[in-house]
């Protein structure tokens, strides 16, 4: 689509905030692979600066700056140019100059002398006068001969990045190519380890061995060997090959990390499992000393009369590959020959009715992951939630509007019914060309609308300050707090000991007796907006796959009552619990016995056609396998459990994969309503003046965000698998330690509950979470039922352990006290 002649257009007076470009290590993959060795990694240099590694910065710049200068001078000629390459070169120049200037400014501000002078790159400032010189035979690839003058990267490295198999096979025979190190100290094996080509890696390892060259050398910028690059990107087969070839898995980089720790940090637990279990010189240093960026601004509270729009470009799911900004002008991903003057396009995002009239500006193309960089707009409650997207092109005459699009965030809510919303929070809006009104592309984003909680829960309950909460949850001189998982444990057939039904009052009382300080349980909301204690997505006890949020409270409780054998007298079965206000009577537990065997068979027969029962072959808290007890509501728990028993209330909002697995429509109760019902129940039935300790937690990131914005009475924890396999929930923010820490800090959460496998593989990451992230560190998982695993976590500094075998873990902790 032609953009037409450039026309000056005055920009609006609405303030624009620019989303700062980050310089991630994967930049070269998305944009200019043939020039990657000349790319200046700003994030890396900032990390060195924070750690005081000034000598490493100088060494990096001493290598990179002269190489860049020679490269640019050689590539540019005033006689002729190719527009496609010029656009790309302009962008690349801007990225590098910005990075160098930022670092040099930072060094000089801190009183460090001897920094390279950025003025030597002034010729890049007037980019429109540059011309690109297309040197004859300048690619340097013919016959494996290196170019005589500084040009792009080494020909073998270029061939690898473009995956040119024929040239790779030819060039790898020349030992000069194998010996060549880029300005960052990377050889061809570093490149192929990043790329993930197993065949190239195998070929290079054989060639290096034949030439007597070391394959395990660290680069200059990070101190990374090829093993680090493969581990960071999760290339399991390449990591295995490098380890078999003798790569040093105990090598530490400039920041004190091992390759295994990076694999865990990034969520590649299968890769980390290939490494030996070793002591990395104790549990200090490395991760806990590494720099971590400041938390980005997040609203403290969603006030009455307001609503907050939180939107992120792209998808939040790992199984969804989408282009955030897909335009005929300029896409999120650079494609040679299709993008015109790529450095001049940008996208603005604003919200109708935004009180601050703020617009966010995003330079195109987008180079980095956007999931933890949301756009936040506060608007009035009486304004329809809308996001407005504009695409501009910067010209010498001014900024020219090319196209626009508007997303009506709640426009289709009536399709799902009152108080309902889709579990799919991703939306795509078309961008219409200003001149032709035809579709010029799309913008895909994920959004959440936060609405205020009108009742007062803005002060800590049971403690005077939030800091006292954190201190109570992270005792310095005693072992970790013990939380009973669903009471005395998740009901599993594999367990050889007799279990009380999970998520029941009887199980919670038993857990406290056995030594748990807190009990953890799951809270869901029924169709008639009542908070109940239940884990599974669907109520299989009803004989169907109906979700809990599609049932009324009476239907939910009836499913509990009908688990008893038909025809038995009420005196044997126990009276049903009354949920009338003021009546706290409990039924007797329905003990397992031979006389109830026929009833147990009836129960299993009723559930045999449900998805959940087919997958597992049993149902928690049912007669015949466990000591079944009545289903409980959140009100039951708050009113019947002694005050000294702390509560870890997991707000279990339905997740997309659960609806897909059950084969039901992915629609549930609206998020704000779901959270408000739980908060209302806690506020109404947690006795006034109570000193009961309550923490709130959730696997769903949006629930954590809402809990943080709606209340300050109770600490909020994000629960994450952190890359644990199999990953049923494809949520990006639950995929690694790294992204979980960023998310928790971004939204002012108190802590994170990790699947324990991640921290067992890399115990020093506990220090990163606590000391660098400033977060409470908790773990869950079946391995937490092993005494040795508990001892390892205590040594690593874990604050909270959520476990099933409460007595075993309590005894283990008592010995360590």
TrEMBL record:
Keywords: ANK repeat, Hydrolase. It is an enzyme of class 3 (hydrolase). Its EC number is 3.1.4.46. Residues 480-813 form the GP-PDE domain. GO terms for molecular function: glycerophosphodiester phosphodiesterase activity. It holds the Pfam family C2_GDE1. This is Glycerophosphocholine phosphodiesterase. It comes from Podospora bellae-mahoneyi. The gene is GDE1_2.
């Amino acid at each position: 689509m032609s953009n037409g002649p450039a026309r000056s257009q005055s920009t609006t007076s609405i303030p624009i905030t620019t989303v700062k470009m980050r310089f991630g290590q994967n930049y070269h993959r998305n944009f200019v692979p043939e020039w990657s060795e000349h790319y200046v990694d700003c994030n890396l240099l900032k990390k060195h600066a924070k750690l005081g590694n000034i000598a490493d910065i100088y060494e990096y710049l001493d290598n990179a700056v002269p190489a860049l200068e020679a490269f640019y001078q050689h590539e540019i000629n005033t006689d002729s140019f190719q527009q496609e390459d010029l656009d790309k070169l302009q962008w690349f120049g801007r990225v590098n100059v910005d990075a160098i200037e930022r670092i040099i400014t930072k060094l000089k501000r801190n009183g460090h002398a001897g920094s390279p002078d950025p003025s030597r790159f002034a010729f890049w400032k007037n980019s429109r006068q540059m011309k690109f010189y297309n040197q004859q035979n300048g690619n340097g690839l013919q016959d494996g001969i290196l170019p005589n003058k500084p040009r792009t990267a080494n020909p073998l490295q270029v061939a690898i990045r473009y995956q040119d198999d024929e040239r790779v096979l030819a060039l790898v025979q020349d030992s000069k190519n194998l010996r060549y190190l880029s300005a960052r100290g990377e050889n061809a094996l570093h490149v192929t380890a990043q790329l993930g080509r197993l065949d190239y890696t195998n070929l290079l390892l054989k060639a290096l061995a034949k030439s007597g060259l070391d394959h395990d050398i660290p680069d200059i910028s990070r101190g990374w060997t090829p093993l680090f690059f493969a581990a960071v990107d999760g290339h399991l087969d390449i990591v295995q090959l490098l380890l078999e070839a003798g790569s040093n898995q105990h090598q530490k980089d400039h920041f004190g990390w091992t390759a295994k720790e990076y694999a865990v940090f990034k969520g590649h637990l299968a890769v980390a499992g290939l490494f030996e279990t070793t002591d990395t010189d104790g549990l200090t240093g490395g991760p806990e000393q590494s720099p971590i960026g400041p938390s980005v601004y997040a609203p403290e509270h969603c006030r009455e009369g307001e609503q907050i729009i939180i939107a992120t470009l792209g998808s939040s799911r790992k199984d969804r590959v989408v282009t955030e900004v897909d335009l005929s002008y300029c896409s999120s991903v650079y494609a040679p020959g299709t993008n015109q003057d790529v450095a001049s396009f940008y996208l603005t995002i604003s919200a109708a009715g935004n009180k601050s009239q703020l617009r966010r500006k995003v330079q195109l193309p987008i180079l980095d992951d956007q999931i933890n960089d949301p756009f936040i707009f506060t608007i009035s409650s009486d304004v329809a939630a809308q996001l407005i997207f504009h695409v501009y092109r910067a010209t010498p005459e001014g900024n020219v509007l090319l196209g626009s699009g508007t997303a009506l965030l709640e426009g289709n809510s009536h399709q799902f019914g009152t108080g309902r919303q889709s579990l799919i929070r991703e939306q795509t809006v078309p961008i219409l060309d200003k001149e032709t009104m035809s579709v010029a592309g799309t913008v895909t984003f994920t959004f959440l609308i936060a609405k205020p909680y009108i009742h007062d829960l803005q002060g800590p309950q049971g403690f005077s300050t939030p800091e006292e909460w954190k201190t109570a949850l992270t005792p310095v001189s005693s072992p970790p707090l013990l939380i009973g998982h669903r009471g005395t444990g998740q009901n599993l057939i594999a367990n050889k000991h007799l279990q009380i039904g999970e998520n029941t009052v009887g199980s919670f009382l038993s857990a406290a007796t056995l030594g748990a300080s807190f009990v953890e349980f799951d809270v869901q909301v029924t169709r008639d907006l009542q908070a109940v204690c239940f884990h599974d997505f669907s109520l299989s006890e009803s004989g169907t796959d109906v979700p809990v949020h599609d049932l009324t409270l009476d239907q939910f409780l009836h499913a509990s009552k009908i688990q008893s054998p038909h025809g038995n007298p009420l005196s044997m079965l126990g009276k049903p619990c009354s949920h009338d206000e003021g009546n706290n009577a409990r039924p007797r537990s329905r003990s397992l016995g031979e006389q109830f065997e026929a009833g147990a068979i009836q129960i299993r027969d009723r559930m045999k056609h449900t998805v959940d029962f087919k997958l597992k072959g049993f149902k928690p808290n049912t007669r015949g396998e466990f000591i079944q007890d009545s289903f409980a509501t959140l009100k039951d728990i708050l009113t019947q459990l002694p005050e000294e028993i702390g509560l870890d209330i997991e707000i279990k909002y339905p997740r997309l994969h659960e609806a897909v697995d059950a084969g039901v429509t992915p629609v549930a109760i609206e998020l704000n309503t779901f959270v408000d019902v739980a908060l209302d129940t806690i506020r109404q039935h947690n006795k006034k003046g109570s000193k009961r300790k309550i923490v709130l937690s959730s696997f769903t990131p949006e629930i954590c965000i809402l809990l943080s914005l709606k209340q300050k009475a109770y600490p909020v924890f994000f629960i994450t698998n952190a890359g644990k396999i199999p990953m049923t929930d494809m949520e990006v923010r639950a995929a690694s330690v790294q992204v979980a820490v960023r998310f928790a800090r971004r939204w002012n959460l108190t802590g994170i509950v990790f699947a324990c496998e991640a921290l067992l593989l890399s115990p020093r990451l506990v220090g990163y979470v606590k000391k660098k992230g400033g977060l409470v560190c908790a773990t869950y998982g079946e391995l937490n039922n092993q005494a040795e695993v508990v001892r390892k976590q205590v040594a690593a500094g874990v604050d909270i352990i959520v476990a099933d075998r409460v007595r075993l873990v309590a005894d283990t902790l008592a010995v360590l006290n």
